Amino acid sequence: xxxxxxxxxxxxxxxxxxxxxxxxxxxxxxxxxxxxxxxxxxxxxxxxxxxxxxxxxxxxxxxxxxxxxxxxxxxxxxxxxxxxxxxxxxxxxxxxxxxxxxxxxxxxxxxxxxxxxxxxxxxxxxxxxxxxxxxxxxxxxxxxxxxxxxxxxxxxxxxxxxxxxxxxxxxxxxxxxxxxxxxxxxxxxxxxxxxxxxxxxxxxxxxxxxxxxxxxxxxxxxxxxxxxxxxxxxxxxxxxxxxxxxxxxxxxxxxxxxxxxxxxxxxxxxxxxxxxxxxxxxxxxxxxxxxxxxxxxxxxxxxxxxxxxx
Length: 310
What we know:
This protein has helices at 6-11, 17-28, 31-35, 91-97, 100-123, 136-139, 159-167, 179-190; strands spanning 4-5, 37-40, 45-53, 72-79, 81-90, 145-147, 174-178, 198-202, 208-212, 215-220, 244-250, 257-261, 266-272, 278-291, 297-304. By secondary structure, the protein is of the alpha+beta class.
């Protein structure tokens, strides 16, 4: 099956009505889960080759042979992880406040699960927690890791460095940053001395989204609207107190960054439990992520909370 975003899968009627309701809650509460396509795989892991070095080419003279040359492919294995939770609502609450209260409590739990997956997408580290998957902060190294500067305490974001970040990514499709930094972009667009190439559009739910050039900006924040997923608490390349954040450029394409899953997200209504008077819904999802190309993402780090400069 072709890779589909969660919303696309839901619109095609994949899964039960409960599954589809769960999917929509996930997508609404995570900009990443709204745009990231998921490839359905067999088994508990996906093996594939990531291109490292292209084969050599050359001109030849008449009656000469071409020199033999091969490219280099790195074998990669991505494992699935299990994320989910049990959504319990006491019978007393349902009986006294009505059946609809159950869906409200379940939606709150689902939002928390979506936020946790999104945080792992950026910050996951199997060295810290073997049950999760490595996120972008762990994966993006070498030429895909760009410094905003080398000042102690971090540097103001420069649009020139943003362009450098975008150039480092093959087929870029999105920018991702925290809420405060996105607000700085909006302010830069109103400042004629800076500019910023900012425009606005709508997402699939009719909500306003911002574009830098032709790249939509994914605003990454917590359920409370706080910058706790990509906070201004990262270490700075130039040292000093840890008071900087990162922004990311992503290539969310078939040959770039994708999610993987064994099957669509599943929600099961297990009814009232014997051990206690609660109605139980269990949500489970066998999912992970993959980066098919070495330049499918880039991280710009060391950005302090200050006005954007040219």
